[in-house]
């Protein structure tokens, strides 16, 4: 079974998608993550862990997913004036030095820092959320899917979702049960969902990667 490393894994939204695509997943996060659903977990700083495990990664892993915290680039945090370190560039540097294929995921505010990002949207996967997220592929090519028109209204913040509405899983959003069911993240609490990508995004990426790897090996 191919191994993926998911750094900045949180409760494991991306991890679950790679598992669905057929990977064994090793997660790394600075905080304890008692709800994490991966196959192995390490509590550590992501860059330090990647650097100190570079030999192991080259030998045993096929792929790395990295979701550096996005607070620096989200509008709400900018307004609140919080100071978060920018981890996108140092994460890319260590991944390039290891020489492993990867994706770095982030939010719209980080677009200027991402190289040739692919945009994923919940409507591409028949989910009840738009939740645009951006993915830089390093060492391989990720294909941009067609972006369906946004036809559904989004639930206003503070109101439970009504039939036919799409949920914005940000802040203190209502509709945790609906999102758990819609995204297939039954083990997550609100905090985990707010930080997460829907597993369907990572499953798409994981399947694309494995398809290309199989083609290259044929
Ligand atoms: C946006 S969340 C990742 C969400 C995850 N990709 C998912 O789909 O569920 C970012 C995570 O990075 C973690 N984090 C922040 N700084 C870190 C660091 N220096 N090293 C490792 N993890 C870190 C946070 O604890 C948080 O869980």
Overview of the structural elements:
The structure is a single chain. Helices cover 33% and strands 15% of the residues. It has 218 residues and is α/β, with parallel strands linked by helices. The protein has a single domain, classed as Vaccinia Virus protein VP39 (Rossmann fold), CATH 3.40.50. The chain has a seven-stranded mixed beta sheet with strand order 3-2-1-4-5-7-6, sandwiched between helices. Helix 1 (13-21) runs parallel beside helix 8 and helix 2 (46-52) packs parallel to helix 5. The protein is globular, with a radius of gyration of 17 Å. S-adenosylmethionine (SAM) binds next to helix 1 and strand 2.
At the first level of CATH, the class is: Alpha Beta
> What is Rg?
17 Å
Could you list the spans in which at least 5 consecutive residues all have pLDDT below 50?
none
What is the CATH third-level topology name? Rossmann fold
Strand order of the largest sheet: 3-2-1-4-5-7-6
What is the terminal separation in angstroms?
Answer: 18 Å
How much β-strand is present in the residues?
Answer: 15-25%
- H/E element sequence: EHEEHHEHHEEEHHH
Counted beta strands: 7
Total helix count? 8
- Main sheet attributes: strand count, strand direction, barrel closure: 7 strands, mixed
Average pLDDT confidence is 93
What would the principal axes of the Cα set say about the shape?
Answer: globular
Count of domains = 1
Associated small molecules:
S-adenosylmethionine
């Amino acid at each position: 079974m191919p191994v993926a490393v998911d750094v900045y894994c949180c409760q494991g939204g991306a991890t679950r998608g790679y598992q669905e695509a057929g990977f064994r997943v090793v997660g790394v996060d600075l905080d304890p993550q008692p709800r994490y659903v991966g196959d192995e977990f390490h509590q550590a700083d992501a860059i330090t862990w990647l650097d100190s495990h570079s030999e192991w990664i080259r030998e045993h892993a096929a792929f790395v997913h990295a979701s550096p915290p996005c607070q620096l680039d989200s509008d709400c945090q900018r307004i609140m004036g919080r100071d978060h370190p920018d981890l996108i560039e140092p994460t890319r540097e260590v991944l390039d030095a290891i020489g492993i294929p990867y994706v770095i995921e982030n939010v719209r505010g980080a677009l200027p820092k991402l190289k040739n990002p692919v945009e994923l949207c919940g409507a591409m996967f028949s989910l009840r959320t738009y939740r645009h997220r951006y993915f830089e592929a390093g060492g391989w090519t990720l294909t941009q899917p067609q972006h369906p028109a946004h036809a559904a209204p989004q639930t206003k913040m503070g109101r439970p979702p009504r039939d036919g509405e799409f949920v914005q899983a940000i802040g203190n959003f209502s509709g945790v049960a609906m999102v758990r069911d819609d995204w297939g993240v039954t083990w997550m609490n609100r905090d985990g969902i707010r930080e997460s990508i829907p597993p369907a995004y990572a499953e798409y990426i994981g399947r694309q990667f494995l398809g290309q790897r199989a083609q290259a090996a044929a």
